[in-house]
Write a structure and sequence with these properties.
By secondary structure, the chain is of the alpha+beta class. About 20% of the residues lie in helices and about 30% in strands. It has four helices and five strands, in the order ββαβαβαβα. The protein has a three-stranded antiparallel sheet, with helices on one face. Strands 1-2 form a two-stranded antiparallel ribbon. A hairpin with a 2-residue loop joins strand 1 and strand 2.
């Protein structure tokens, strides 16, 4: 079914294999999570940096991974807000994370945080 919405055409996928990408079965293996976090730091250097996000991978549930964020330099020694997470299946999420970091590489911040 095709619909015109605001000058754009919305239609059903022609290739049925695309629909299978959205279906997880018992044959699929969860390999971890990719996540995006925002720092809740009170540090003026961190607060003044707009669009500062941490993109990472965890093989454990995200809530478990970030529960001690205030004690971990990787989270800038601060609580964090989980902006989004995606479960990964049938892939190497570490490689995917590396691709993301390579893509955003020139946008990375170089910041020293002392305990």
């Amino acid at each position: 079914m095709r619909q015109n919405r605001g000058g754009r055409v919305v239609s059903e996928p022609i290739d049925k294999s695309i629909q299978r990408l959205h279906t997880i079965t018992e044959d699929d293996t969860k390999t971890g999570y990719i996540y995006v976090l925002k720092s809740l730091s009170k540090d003026p250097k961190i607060q003044s940096t707009s669009n500062l996000y941490k993109i990472g991978f965890s093989s454990t549930p995200i809530e478990e991974r970030i529960k001690n964020a205030e004690q971990e330099p990787t989270y800038l020694m601060s609580r964090v807000h989980l902006c989004m997470s995606v479960e990964c299946y049938n892939m190497n999420p570490q490689k995917f994370e590396k691709i993301i970091h390579t893509f955003f590489g020139k946008s990375c911040i170089n910041l020293d945080i002392f305990d």
